[in-house]
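Record 1 of the preview.
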Amino acid sequence: MVESQVKQLCKETKESLKQVISYTETFLNHHSLKDLEKNGETELEQFYSGYLSDLRHLLVFSEVEYEKLGIALRRPEFNLKRSEKILYNVYHRCVNNFFYPKHESYAEDGRYAYTGQDAICFRKKPDKDAKELTLKLSSIFENMRESLAYYENDYVTQKRLQGESV
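->
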């Protein structure tokens, strides 16, 4: 990719991550396992425990990559290779961790993507705030996934052809 395109993509991705961090921090600061799991059901407690764990991991990954993008954009000379590596990491650490959470509290159902319905399906019926957060994040990560799709496959192929590890 051309340097100016990568730099612009870094700026857009940084802004998207800033939104993700803001929404996720606000949610985690105002909700605890006790707040979400109100009626003492063991299954709901496990559901929310996994959901919150996945959110905390997503927040950490997003913060780390946000900082790396900030550093890359502040450098006097833009380092194309380093920035592409960061975008690759954003795709694999943030976007993939959102759409494929470890505890599988929700999953993306691609069949709904073309119908205008929400593509996120929850394993258990979530709290209204948890559902709203997940759908907000889904929208942001869907846009990031589309703009960073190059880094899913072509970037890795390019690096392997050059004999470099990813």
